[in-house]
Amino acid sequence: MPILRDNQLQTIFQTALAQIIEQRDLIDWKLLQTVLTDTSELETQAAEQAAEIEIATKLIEQAINANAHQSQNQDDYHQRFKKLEQRQREAIDAYEATMAEIERRTGIKATLNHYRRTLTTLDSVGDFNPATFHALCQRIEIAPSGKATVIWKDGTSTPEQ
């Protein structure tokens, strides 16, 4: 496995940065935002899932009240209650997964906006700047052959030339 020093990594980053500055006008920022960060469908889905949670909760409350005020077969009641409880749990799990995805995409949006602001304000590469590195670079991958690839925070990559 090749060992690279900080100055070598900085040179790799600076070279890749020069390439991306040259090509930044080709980036379709609206498309990136839409594909990576749009949450409108997820928000609709979350609202539907929240409504399902509410329905399941009300059905559970009704079953409990009916059991408290009416004589009924307890085995049937427990079976019905477990089904309602499972329905509610599945709705909650789906809602939480949807909300986690919304949160993930919102985080990507913030990162992408910062990435865009940083990249569009650069006129040239200049000297290595750690703040620029952290704003733009997700990681640098080094292959066993020693070839490096810069992975940018917008999900694109620039292989070492």
Shape: elongated
Strand content: 5-15%
Q: Please count the helical segments.
A: 5
The major sheet is characterized as:
3 strands, antiparallel
Could you give the topology of this structure?
Layout lengths: L5 H18 L5 H9 L2 H30 L4 H48 L8 H7 E6 L5 E5 L4 E3 L2
Antiparallel strand pairs: 1-2, 2-3
Helix pairs in contact: 2-4, 3-4
Protein model, in words:
The chain has helices at 6-23, 29-37, 40-69, 74-121, 130-136, and strands spanning 137-142, 148-152, 157-159. Helix 2 (29-37) packs antiparallel against helix 4 and helix 3 packs antiparallel against helix 4. It is built from 5 helices and 3 strands; from the N terminus they run H-H-H-H-H-E-E-E.
Concise summary:
This protein is mainly α and 161 residues long. The chain is 70% helix and 9% strand.
Q: What features would you highlight for this structure?
A:
mainly alpha; 3 strands
